Amino acid sequence: MKQEERRQQTVRRLMDTTKELITEKGCNSITMKDIVNRSGLSKGAIFHYVKSKNEIFVWVLQERLEETNENFMDAVEHGRRNFDEPMQKIQESIIAYENPNDVTNKVLLYLLGREEDPLVAEALKQYYERSVHLSRMWIETGQKYGVIPETVNANRKADMFTLMTFGLRMRSSIPHTQTSFNAQDLSGVIRQILNQGSCS
């Protein structure tokens, strides 16, 4: 087996194992020993790629974002060059974030409580910036194909949509919250803004 294939298999097993453990125990209770025992990987194999569970958590956090991007780009490439199919992929991701048991939300909240760790602080910064970058790219892609008006300010809207989505994710972690504005509503607002072409 080639080294890159081995690396991918190890990373995949680490991430799958970590997500299972987060679902069962939450982020705070998990130790590297738990990950070693559950994954069946040796300590040496794991520590060859990561130094701490926080690094694996960062991978888990980033994975959903990249999956959403892949789904969006696939819808653009194989769709009818319309607004609805790519937007549906983004909407599915936003709706998943509303789930209080969403693993990536648990990881995000956990990491936000450890921002004094320089590795975590940098990872959070990169994650937010990547979220804004992809949102901007999605808007610009829609503008390129003429399904989002040119009057939409891609930079401002991308930052605003990311901020709104993060707020939704934070709220999902508050138990028994009564809400009158949900993920479907947020998706509707995003859709309306992009269709109207507001320049602000």
UniProtKB/TrEMBL annotation:
<keyword id="KW-0804">Transcription</keyword>
<dbReference type="InterPro" id="IPR001647">
    <property type="entry name" value="HTH_TetR"/>
</dbReference>
<keyword id="KW-0238">DNA-binding</keyword>
<keyword id="KW-0805">Transcription regulation</keyword>
<feature type="domain" description="HTH tetR-type">
    <location>
        <begin position="8"/>
        <end position="68"/>
    </location>
</feature>
<dbReference type="Pfam" id="PF00440">
    <property type="entry name" value="TetR_N"/>
</dbReference>
<dbReference type="InterPro" id="IPR009057">
    <property type="entry name" value="Homeodomain-like_sf"/>
</dbReference>
<protein>
    <submittedName>
        <fullName>TetR/AcrR family transcriptional regulator</fullName>
    </submittedName>
</protein>
<feature type="DNA-binding region" description="H-T-H motif">
    <location>
        <begin position="31"/>
        <end position="50"/>
    </location>
</feature>
<dbReference type="InterPro" id="IPR036271">
    <property type="entry name" value="Tet_transcr_reg_TetR-rel_C_sf"/>
</dbReference>
